[in-house]
Amino acid sequence: MVLSRTVLVLPPKLRAELEEIVRGGYPLETCGVLVGEQREGGAVVTGVVSARNIDTEHPADRYEVDPGDFMAADLAARAVGRELVAIWHSHPDHPARPSETDRAAAWSGWSYVIASVGAAGIGTLRSWRLTDEAHFVEEPLLDQDAALPAVRGDPR
Amino acid sequence: MSAKDRRLAELKQLVPEVTPEEAEARRRAGAVLIDVREPDEVAQGSPVGAARIVRGFLELRVEDAAPDFDAEVLVICAGGVRSLFAAEGLQRMGYTNAHSVVGGFNRWKSDGLPVEVPATLDGAERERYGRHLLMPEIGEAGQLRLLAAKVLLVGAGGLGCPIAQYLAAAGVGTLTLVDDDVVDRSNLQRQVLHTDAGVGRPKVESAREALLRLNPTTNVTVHRERLTSTNVERLFAGQDVIVDGSDNFPTRYLVNDACVKLGIPNVHGSVFRFEGQVTVFWPGRSPDPGPCYRCLYPEPPPPELAPSCAEAGVLGVLPGVIGLLEAIETVKLLLDLGEPLVGRLIHYEALTQRFTDLRLARDPSCTYCGDGASFPGYVDYEQFCSSTGS
Fold first, then answer.
1. Is A147 in contact with B307 (Cβ distance < 8 A)?
2. How does pLDDT run across B216-255, given as a tens digit for each residue?
3. In this complex, is the C-beta atom of A144 within 8 Å of any C-beta atom belonging to chain B?
4. Catalytically annotated residue among B259, B295, B309, B385
5. Which of B60, B219, B222, B276 is the most buried (most CB within 10 A)?
6. What number is the ipTM of this complex?
7. Can you give the CATH number for the domain in which B291 is found?
8. CA dihedral in degrees (B207, B210, B211, B217; nearest 10)?
């Protein structure tokens, strides 16, 4: 089976922030980016950014991150020495697994975090990356940034 | 007076002697008693509680038995002569309180002091495992531990073959193989225990014969059955280590769950095309527990995202690399040596020859091994891994 060579570190406080946005947007699909730092073996998230979903034709089951929001988040991240490390979106009433649409739209080198959400609240969060062969592989989503060695100093 | 007698007279001046009775009293009070006789002598009996370090290796290995140079060290041989030389050697090393037991083991026995017949390697074992015996980290005690160890391998395929081969060679005493498959010609590109003539035969039988050819003293138990919720605890009970060489998610989750429940370390490996990974799942470790498989992957991947090696291929040599990393972890666990891959995962990429070392944390809210979690039971693993998940 396809193996993950990376992990994504999402500290509990940021995970809660992301889940709150996803819950608040239900039953519509919400999306955004995660700011952080790429390291050997994965990425560490240091900020959650919400973006507008510009797919207004299918707002409950499709997403397209507003390019303006994306650019603004990218600039803001770079201004503080960070970068965008992941795209996130929710799957209302659907499992946290990537669809064929998700795969076709994905780029390699990024993490794709999917949060399943229903009327009862958040289901699961799972993180995926595209392999060189354009398969999605799940990467462990960890809550401790001790998981990865720092390569540019401690981000905290 | 001969040179030997002159030398002995000198040693008697230099080395204080104690009677066997006094030595036993001091050993009980905390002194270190070292039997320096040859293995064939020790095999006939040795003082209870003695460290056994053959004279030729005494200076090289004594610090393991007596790390404190001011501790009282009592050296015993057969008649009290070799122990004089040995104790004087210890004095030269800096031991300030080294003694020789007068009359040696012969007098020890005739005085009725406690004797035990230690487990020892026989001549053939000593020859076979000679390279292990040279290493103080293993030595005779470590080899005896390996010979007493029980390891179960899930799968006798790409990973299971090299793992079993090296564990049998290393002297792991009891190997249990579980696999319900038969040898296919397409297996032979990587499953190195099987042969062309064995195509169509049960893999466990083929593997067992190859292992016994390599090391006839290995106790190889085989089960030609698929691991299931019903048989897993019966098969895992009493094993020291489980080595997972399975190639499918239902078995992987089942192995994980059973190991969590039984508290057994789970040496885990997997391969895909040109890459592989290895780790040790052991939430029951104390101290420093690590994650279980479910801490990292609470749910299996969607089947369409999990092509197997049968679908995507695997470089034939690769399971050898990953399997042997698993075998090394197994030996380390059995001997309590070094730093096991608990809470760490090594990812290996063959095309670039790169190893990436990932640190993995335990999930305190894991439903199987989390803080305060009680075992939720086995599930229908086929259904669990084929469903859409949540």
1. no
2. 999 999 999 999 999 999 999 999 999 999 988 899 999 9
3. yes
4. B309
5. B276
6. 0.72
7. 3.40.50.720
8. 130
